[in-house]
Amino acid sequence: MTFYSDTGLTKDRWIKAFETKPSAEGFPVVHHAVTSMEFPDGGGGFLSEYALGKTADINPPGTGQLIKAGTRLNWNVHYASSPDGLDHTDRTRLGLWFLPEDEEPENVLIRSHMADNEDLDLPGGEASIRTDGYEFLDKNIRITTFQPHLHNLGTRQCLEVIYQDNRRQTLSCADWDFGWHIAYNYAEEVQPLIPKGSMLHVTSWFNNSETNPWAGDSRNWVGFGQRSTDDMSFSWISYYELTDEDFEEAVKDRQILLNAGSD
Predict the structure, then answer these.
(1) Does residue 255 sit within a domain?
(2) Whole-number Å distance between alpha carbons of 173 and 228
(3) Lower CB density within 10 Å: C or N end of the chain?
(4) Residue 246: C-alpha distances to residues 130, 140, 143, 193 (Å)
């Protein structure tokens, strides 16, 4: 279901943190809620997503997301079948925490899902199924947050970078529980610095056997889809772009930090 709401903003503001939540009555039937911004000048972009167990997103110091005066919000809310057979009324809400009006962040934070794999083939009865997705980077980026996204059959996801010289580096791995959509924030001193021309590689694992309590009838094949009983594989990544000069400076600062830690 898609609907719209006006923000009522009369000034451009920078977002420090945000959270999307269904109402208490609507909670049992809200599968996910995604909000996007539509600027008066025709621009905009993704803002926030909610799924089971998701809490607030807090942008790292020195970063923010711009929301312009007169912005309209696009709400895409997926309602599941009522588990108790009753009618439910939902009023999903979005809370925004702004930076002070006179404060502008150093870096513009971007959130997007990356390395999507829609060619999922999850045979019934299989307890360890691996899938892979890739995302080419044409800009230098600094990653601040990694959030796996799978459905009922997912068990684990890893994010790695493949550099142009074919070196590979694991950036994060997390076990998966469909009841908890968790964003993992990197400490500033270990935020991955990824040069343009690199490839992000997302590896996901699934369990479509009777040993998975989230599985329905584990004899059934499962593929990609929007329902919880279908599945997905991608990562929500928060990052900001760096010029070549800023990237080189960040790499130098990181090396100084590493050298100091090894003394």
Answers:
(1) no
(2) 22
(3) C
(4) 37, 9, 14, 11
Examine the fold and report which residue of 106, 131, 161 is the final residue of a domain before the chain moves on.
Answer: 106
d(CA 152, CA 215): 6
* Both structure tokens of 84: 């108790």
- Please report, in tens digits, the pLDDT of each residue of the chain (263 residues total): 898 999 999 999 999 999 999 888 878 888 788 999 999 988 888 898 888 889 899 999 999 999 999 999 999 988 877 778 888 888 899 999 999 998 999 999 999 989 999 989 999 999 999 999 999 999 999 999 999 999 889 999 999 999 999 999 999 999 999 889 999 999 999 999 999 999 999 999 999 999 988 888 888 898 788 777 777 889 999 999 999 999 999 999 999 988 876 65
- The end-to-end CA distance of the chain, in Å, is 57
Are the C-beta atoms of residues 110 and 66 closer than 8 Å to each other?
Answer: no
Range of the domain at 52: 2-106
With beta carbons less than 8 A apart as the criterion, state whether 245 and 251 touch: no
As beta bridge partners, residue 180 has: 177
Q: Which residues pair with 14 in a beta bridge?
A: 66
∠152-158-161 over CA atoms, to 5°?
Answer: 145
Residues 100 and 128 in one domain: no
Take residue 77 and report the two structure tokens written for it.
Answer: 């809310």
